[in-house]
Design goal:
mainly alpha
Length: 201
């Protein structure tokens, strides 16, 4: 596999030049690899999750992880960065503002429902029971239009990410396309649309 770090660094710098804050944060409580928020710092912010990161908001090939812990997988992080950049570009104008705002309201409602369900969960549930309660509550509370908006935004973010990586010189998209396939499937699962498949992790 070719070294993808030059593409990683170019994409990081491009997002910064377009007005986004790009930085690392430690592991997310829900296991996200990254996220985008339009007014987090309060500028639009792209986060790449990386334990033991260097706190200078600069892209880095390595981390402060002590041996024998592994160094970051740059290819996986590049895919995360590209996907979150896709959300940034959607917010910045790729999606019409009124439509993006409707998506944003739907996503916030989903998150509020999820947080409420989690706060009321009894102890001792299995992982499957935990997820079924979350999925059932979200699916019951969100209408078809909200579900379509959320999946549409996720799909667009993956598509924009792929476009920019091709523009910046990435040629091997096997891993990206697999992450996109799994990412959309798991997103649909969390919304109560898809069911898990035998080969799902």
């Amino acid at each position: 596999m070719d070294d993808v770090y030059p593409v990683y660094e170019r994409l990081w710098r491009r997002a910064q030049a377009e007005g986004a804050i790009v930085r690392y944060e430690g592991l997310a409580p829900n296991g996200e690899a990254g996220w985008f928020h339009p007014t987090y710092y309060p500028k639009p912010t792209i986060i790449v999750m990386r334990p033991y990161y260097k706190e200078d908001d600069q892209p880095a090939r390595d981390s402060n992880a002590p041996p024998p812990l592994a160094q970051p997988n740059i290819h996986e992080e590049l895919i995360t960065l590209a996907h979150e950049y896709g959300h940034f570009r959607s917010w910045a104008g790729r999606t019409e503002r009124s439509k993006y705002n409707l998506y944003d309201v739907a996503a916030e409602r989903r998150d509020a429902i999820t947080a409420e369900v989690i706060s009321k969960m009894p102890e001792g549930l299995s992982k499957q029971e935990h997820w079924e309660r979350r999925r059932t509550a979200v699916r019951a509370a969100l209408g078809a239009d909200d579900l379509t908006r959320i999946i549409g935004e996720e799909t667009l973010a993956w598509e924009v990410g792929r476009e920019v990586l091709a523009e910046l010189g990435l040629t091997d998209f096997a891993l990206y396309d697999e992450r996109m396939r799994r990412g959309l499937h798991y997103h649909r699962y969390r919304l109560g649309i898809d069911e898990l498949r035998p080969d799902d992790v």
